[in-house]
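Obj.: predict assembly geometry.
Materials: sequence records (below).
Method: joint structure prediction, all chains together.
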Amino acid sequence: MTRDAYNQLFEESYNSLCKYAYTIVKDYDDAEDIVQGVFISFWNNEKKEEIGDKVKNYLLRSVKFKCIDLHRKKLLHRNFEQEVLHTQEKIVQIDFNEEKDTNIKDVLMLAISELPEKTREVFMACKLDGLSYNEIASHYEISPKTVENQMGRAFRHLREKLQHYKELLIFILFFLGE
Amino acid sequence: MKNIDEILANYFSGEATPEETLAAQEWKLLNEEEFELLSKAWAVADEVNVADFPTKEFDAKAALAKIEDQLVAPNQGRILKINFYKKVAAACAILLVGLAGFWFLNNRNSTELVANNTNAPKKIELPDHSQVWLAANANLTYATDFNENRTLTLTGEAYFEVERDEKHPFIVNTDFGKVEVLGTAFNVNASDKSTTVSVEHGKVAVENKSGKVLLTAGQSTVATEKMVAPVAPADPNFNAWKTGEFYFNETPLNEVIRLLNAHYPKKIEYHGDPNNQHFINGTFKNSKIEDIIDIIVLTCDLEAENGDNVIRLK
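Observations (raw structure tokens):
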């Protein structure tokens, strides 16, 4: 990989990986530190050529593991400070289960975090609050047609991301036993 | 006509007209796999919170500029490009520093250096009767008035059993922070990237400019240039290099080799297929290296070639 290709990859992926990292660590600086760290070790890794076209999967996966690692350390630290040492093990185990693989939720989080804020709001109002298009329209003072447009955009973006990380996801579907 | 994304959105959120429902079902037949992924994602979206998402953009260009000097040039390691004149200047500077250092040491004549140049751990006793095990290639410096000023500088890995003396705190300085104790046993691994401290018993404070944590028995932390990591359970093998007691629990072979090489003078090398992942289970207490290798060879279906100084695994 040339430096130009690396720079291009960095500029294409940095913003969205940071957004994704934020959904786990909930801290802007931590998110940036983690993504920068992943990019540094990727470039300095002599075996980076072997990753080939799976580089985006690799980056997403690495960012996720680093985030969970940091999150777990923070939890342990907080527990220690509160002297609730007996709950440590439980929390570690919960995180550990999540760690197994990059899954649909990761791609979903990545996709939603990349949406423009308005589109995200509409999508969440529809999905999480269970509001109808008409209710969303009157709440945000937009037309129902605009709600439909925004939902369509959210779906297009989600489909693009699912397609992009398909290789990774099909593998997981297979393992979920369907 | 609406686009397929709007039709799918309407279909999943229950807003589709009968025609749109038909269109969505038709699409499903032609794109089974993608439809499956999409419905899973839609179902998982119930677990998402609005507060999960950032509300700002991240500046890639600024970030790239920031990490620039941490990116090593490909295939050549970190090479300093120095032109001829700079080389001469550097040589002069080194000579000057060298002379100054020599003069300084000669005049003060008050620093002791203990280095372990062997390939096995080495035990030493400090003037205050504290015990130190130095790992291979580790070294320690301390002032000759050590009993009054119990401060050490460590590079590499060492295990300390500190003589209790409340009036004189025992301090280990590393590149990434200092470790302070009263009386206790603990392990410090000061590498060129970070300093790892693990405590066997007693209480230890680890501090650098970014923070400070308190460790008690069975706990560990890592100090780097940027941070002192929160307290975590110590690795069960943290002082295996000294004790010769190894606890392997699904431990990857390369890690096993690293741990064994830190304790045994005879070095182990893996020459097998790097894609084969082997995991080792079991406890070894002061076993002969050949006996441990026999078990690894049997469980991983490898072959061992026993040389004078090296054991090669294939």
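Conclusions so far: The helical segments of chain B are 4-12, 18-30, 32-44, 60-67, 84-108, 240-243, 253-263, 289-300.
To do: check interface contacts against the pulldown list.
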